[in-house]
Design a protein that fits this description.
By secondary structure, this protein is an alpha/beta fold. The protein contains seven helices and seven strands; from the N terminus they run βαββαβαβαβαβαα.
């Protein structure tokens, strides 16, 4: 079923990032009544409908505080905050993988656990998780990031099952590389704009989709269905010996 956006209160994590900055106007254009723009260092927005929220999703006290203040009002939670060191598993700082899991998996889990109870109690609400097509196949130069997003993919499936009976929808968004600071090293032809991602999120909500693969991610997903090992071999060939 299509999800209503008009008049809704939307909380977006990672609001200061490249995708977050496009999600906010996209939701406003779709009719959202209030945007809670959450970020570790919230920016300034010259629009009365946008409220900056200081929030580090890896800080349990901040997450609990944000939920106490905003969970009852939040109709749509967009878990957009993410972290990518763009490093391999071997011969790099093992703390990189830990940080990616802290943000991409455990931080998102903390947000869901904090905000879902209010949605479940009133029997409506939408949770949107920003994942990546790399959750289905590893891009070897960012293997730990893909692993954290694979964990988020399974988390998304699980909470969708747990919350579905209570009227709460859980939506997975799977873009390819996006033209943000995180993917500055990726050739322009191999990534899409943040605006395309924001438009894809709005379309997924309006179309009642549970999963949406944006841009070239849809093509890669189809190739994975047809011959996953061929895709794995292609990606392996792009990795020069360390």
């Amino acid at each position: 079923m299509a999800r209503e956006i008009a008049g809704k209160t939307v909380l977006i994590t990672g609001a200061g990032g490249g995708i977050g900055q496009k999600l906010i106007p996209a939701f406003l254009a779709a009719g959202a009544g209030r945007i809670l723009a959450a970020d570790r260092t919230p920016g300034t927005w010259h629009d009365a409908r946008i409220e900056p929220v200081a929030l580090d999703i890896t800080d349990a006290r901040q997450v609990t505080g944000a939920a106490a203040k905003y969970a009852e009002a939040t109709d749509i939670l967009v878990n957009n905050a993410g972290h990518n060191h763009n490093t391999r598993f071997l011969d790099t700082d093992p703390g990189n993988a830990l940080r990616e899991m802290e943000v991409n998996y455990f931080g998102t889990l903390a947000m869901i656990r904090a905000f879902a109870p209010a949605m479940r109690a009133r029997r409506h609400g939408v949770i949107v998780n920003m994942i990546t097509v790399g959750a289905h196949v590893s891009f070897p130069n960012m293997g730990s990031y893909c692993a954290s997003k694979a964990a988020l993919h399974l988390l998304t499936q699980t909470v969708r099952a747990e919350l579905g009976y209570h009227g709460v929808d859980v939506v997975g968004i799977y873009p390819p590389a996006v033209d943000t600071q995180m993917s500055a090293h990726v050739p322009p032809a191999s990534k899409i704009s943040p605006q395309e991602v924001a438009d894809g999120v709005i379309a997924a909500l309006r179309n009642g989709e549970e999963e949406t693969y944006i841009g070239m991610a849809a093509d890669l997903r189809e190739k994975l269905r047809q011959d996953p090992k061929a895709v794995e071999r292609t990606l392996k060939a792009r990795v020069a010996p360390a």
